[in-house]
Amino acid sequence: MPFPLLYGVAWLAYLLLYYVARYRRDVVRSNLERVFPEKTSAEITALGKNFYRHLSRSALEILKARCMSPAQFSERMQLLNPEVIREYTEDFTRSVIVLTIHQGNWEWMLHGAIAELGIPIDPVYKPLHNKAVDDIVFDIRAQFGSRPLSVDESTKDIVKRRKEFRLFVMVADQSPTRHDRSYWTEFLGQESAFFLGAEVIAKMTRFPVVFAQCRRQKPGYYTLEFLPVATPPYEKEGHAITEQYIEYAEAAIREQPETWLWSNRRWKRDRAVEEAREKAEQSPAS
């Protein structure tokens, strides 16, 4: 499907998602109202519609990736400062952890970076509940030699292969479950829990950490910028890596909010409730 036709279909998909299926409209509006309390109801509605338009376009772009060449990705995903990565990897012995968020087109980022840098890149992913869709996305991520790793196997695999040269990419803005090791802090004005896996892996392997920010320029065209997060040696205590990631993530979302994945239930957990529950569970039985 040529791109002009693809975006025509994307417009129809937007109409179906927003007006007919009403896909997670309550979740999106609730998230937007929490993060942007200063906006009027009309402004929230407009921002929500812009999000659904972008979601429809990016979903079809991801499917389109299955029949795109590296040259096409180089044309449509421009790396603004690849020297940041090359500085860390110039001796071909030190791997890098790249953290990013669900913004822009996070799947195209992978292929654009591979096309430009020529470095093996392994994305860490959370398997989707729909097996058929998960298989399609896995194939898209693996099509240029990447080796996708599920979250459950990632830590063991990365530590085991820490002497191999590659980039490890983690999209770390999803909310962890109560049973995951979490770090609570303020994010977009909300008490939010974050995975600590990337920070734990960085400290274990002594890999440098970089943030990747994707910006949409126009339909089908993006830029990718790398921002240094941290370099070893790392302090054992504290969460400086996670805090810097969160700072970059929030700035990126506020810069181009309509391109972030607002349909996720990001704030379904309640810190006060969970801490009270944990305190009760730890107290001795009367």
From TrEMBL:
This protein's UniProt keywords: Acyltransferase, Cell inner membrane, Cell membrane, Membrane, Transferase, Transmembrane, Transmembrane helix
Keyword Membrane: yes
Domain of life of the native organism: Bacteria
Cellular localisation: Cell inner membrane
GO cellular component labels: plasma membrane
Pfam family for this entry, one: Lip_A_acyltrans
GO MF: acyltransferase activity
Record-annotated membrane-spanning stretches: 6-21
Gene Ontology BP term (one): glycolipid biosynthetic process
Broad class of the protein's primary localization: membrane
Name of this chain's protein: Acetyltransferase
Lineage: Bacteria, Pseudomonadati, Pseudomonadota, Gammaproteobacteria, Cellvibrionales
